[in-house]
Specification:
Distance between the termini: 23 Å
Strand order of the largest sheet: 1-2-4-3
Shape: elongated
Low-confidence stretches: 1-13
Strand content: 5-15%
Helix content: 40-55%
Largest sheet: 4 strands, antiparallel
Oligomer: single chain
Order of helices and strands: HEEHHEEHHHHHHH
Number of strands: 4
Structural class: alpha+beta
Length: about 200
């Protein structure tokens, strides 16, 4: 569960990339086709504008394993980097992109990279492996939490906060019959965490 444990782990035997608990990193470096850096920049701007697009967020929720992603143009507009953190198997992660609206956006962005066959192409995984560079060190702030667990924790917290905000809950804390429960260290910890 500690960062030191994750940092010492080796790359996945079947695919490049490091893991820390349930989280894995994926970093791809490509060469931008000559003269296409501005077009790539425009596509990334469109992608960035679409970050608030409900379809993209719905697709990310449908994929259900993506923690974060970033795109970077560098080396005087000659190279491109895509980096992300995900849960689960590398192969499933790549497959999931091809099956959602994210896949078409991936195709558009990576079409500016030399040799990219398309995310749905049978050779796409080999292309990604050839362009992937595993991190020297990868550390997750929450190595034991999958994206789905984070979503659930958020839903439970929202529901619990709703309960805490009710007059009925506050009144129940003052009922003498509940005093023993309210005084327990576990209940006091729950109240303290909820108010933090």
């Amino acid at each position: 569960m500690t960062a030191a444990t994750g940092a010492a782990q080796t790359a996945h035997p079947e695919r490049p990339g490091r893991s820390d608990g349930v989280c894995s990193e994926f970093t791809v470096f490509t060469r931008i086709k000559p003269g296409e850096a501005d077009a790539l920049r425009e596509d990334l701007a469109t992608l960035s504008d679409a970050a608030d697009d409900e379809r993209v967020h719905a697709a990310v929720r449908q994929i259900g394993t993506l923690h974060d992603a970033r795109h970077v143009i560098f080396d005087d507009d000659t190279r491109f980097m895509f980096a992300s953190v995900f849960d689960g198997s590398w192969d499933t992660y790549i497959d999931d992109f091809a099956q959602t609206v994210v896949g078409s956006r991936f195709d558009k962005v990576f079409s500016h990279s030399e040799g990219f066959p398309g995310v749905a192409d049978p050779g796409a995984k080999d292309w990604f492996v050839a362009h992937q560079a595993p991190a020297g060190v990868f550390v997750s702030a929450y190595p034991d939490l999958t994206v789905q667990q984070i979503y659930k924790d958020q839903r439970v917290d929202e529901a619990f906060q709703d309960v805490l905000d009710t007059d009925e809950f506050r009144a129940a804390l003052d009922i003498p019959a509940n005093a023993e429960l309210v005084a327990t260290p576990a209940f006091q910890k729950l109240l303290a965490e909820a108010s933090a």
